[in-house]
Design brief:
single chain, 139 residues, alpha/beta, Rossmann fold, four-stranded parallel sheet, 49% helix
Length: 139
């Protein structure tokens, strides 16, 4: 299967971004070990787009969503960032793709009032600790 790997990219420090890239690489290796083909847009597009520029970030997210359409499933890291929330929403609503959380419990159940609405219905996050943490990472 073709697996879209959703995990955080952006972070407040260069070290945080490096840690997120290392995580994405590890997750892709696990997808391959499971016999599938991974696609992690945040390992590709930052090589030629500047994630700190809003236009480049939007282009990268849009390009990733285009590839999501040809993937069979979306596998998510257990902590959902703002960028991941967008990818999950697109996968579920626009492309009717299965979204799985093989690396941890589905975090959408932790905040049914706000994060679930943000992902599935496109609402802005509230000020609960889970949404505040997601806004802080902005990945």
């Amino acid at each position: 299967m073709r697996i879209f790997v959703a995990s955080p990219y952006a972070a407040p420090t260069p070290e945080g971004i490096e840690a997120n890239v290392a995580l994405a690489r590890r997750l892709c290796a696990e997808v391959i070990a499971a016999g599938h083909s991974p696609f992690a847009p945040h390992l590709l597009y930052p090589q030629f787009l500047d994630d700190s520029k809003l236009d480049d970030r939007a282009r990268g997210l849009r390009a990733g969503i285009d590839f999501l359409a040809v993937c069979d499933e979306v596998w998510c890291w257990s902590t959902v960032s703002m960028g991941m929330a967008h990818e999950i929403r697109e996968a579920l609503v626009r492309h009717s793709k299965p979204v799985r959380f093989p690396w941890g419990a589905e975090p959408l159940d932790e905040c049914p009032v706000c994060l679930r609405k943000m992902v599935l219905e496109g609402h802005d996050p509230c000020d609960c600790p889970l949404c505040a943490a997601a806004r802080g990472v902005r990945g």
